[in-house]
Amino acid sequence: MKKFLYALLILSISVLCAGAFAADEPIYNSQNPAPFHIGIVTGTVSQSEDDLRGAELIMKMYGETSNGGMITHVTYPDNFPSEQETTISQITGLADDPLMKVIVVNQAVLGTTEAFRRVREKRPDILLLAGEPQEDPTVITEAADVVVHVDNVGRGYTIPLGAQKMGAKTFVHISFPRHMSIEMLSLRRAIMEEACKDLGIKFVFETAPDPTSDVGVAGAQQYILQNMSVWIERYGKDAAFFCTNDSHTEPLLKRIAEVGGCFVEADLPSPLMGYPGALGIDLSNEKGDWAAILKKVEDAVIAAGGKDRMGTWAYSTGYTASAGLAEYGKRYVEGKITNKMGNAQALREIRECFDLFCPGQQWKFSYYTDALTGVKNPKFLLFMQDTYIFGKGYLHLTDVEIPEKYYLIHQQ
To answer: Is this structure's pTM higher than 0.90?
Structure first.
């Protein structure tokens, strides 16, 4: 049922988006084939559904290459840490298509850098774009042309600040060793811990099973379901909870609604991230209207007792990144992207591609700066939306001036 409802959402969203393109975008098919191809690589439904649905949206807009369209979509395996060669093969295989001009990987899991290097060796003409990389910024940007990532430097401060605004006394960060070996996630944890100290909030770290381990997604989710009651009893109902993994989000939200605690936003925030499954929300009648989706999720959260305690971003991060990066690549090949990365105009150009899939939402884009060297990385872009708390409204965290000290914190 969840897959069916999601398919209805994507179909209706693609119809809405197609309307914006109808005047000047040709329809590609076997009779009128696309002049070039774009490959999109995402995780599966079980690991990163929003990323996959964004790829499906852009594929519906511009057509599948198998039928003369522009988009080829493939997935990497759920157990990608131990199946890196399969991931690399999926990515590099796209370069065998002589019409392939853009490859997007979102999320850019382990193996993406090596795959991009191999693609670059045989096809230097292909534009390589990465979303949410799980490899260090200096590593992935050696191979990729453009990388986008949620602003985990800024959010390392704004998420605890949001928790404070919601009345939290304790901030519980839930993760596992593989995620804590990723530079941006480790850095965010370090910033969160420092921010909590400055804001007068107790910081706690709890470990949960990795969904890519032997216990799988089901086992990892069951662990969260079983332990949330224990954690609420230990840390109190005024504790804020944050997890670094998509699979953990649904059971976390389910228990928060049932037993207490608060939740500022997900690792990759979205009203579709965890809430429909946690609260049994049927979104089949919302016809891809994000405002209506947000409202229906809000009604369900309030009915479940989560008013003022649970939040999100109004638009899905993974969904927008998959579609937005593909649109950026399309415009680049067509010569509509005129500026090189590294300045304000480049930020505006990529923001316009994101805006296409979330009209009216305010994005905050910036460049990643290495805390050790102080050097801005012109290929690595950070972005964030404001946080929306159900029953309360926006927290206006994108308006907050983040203290410079947090940008100078090193990863632990």
So the answer is: no
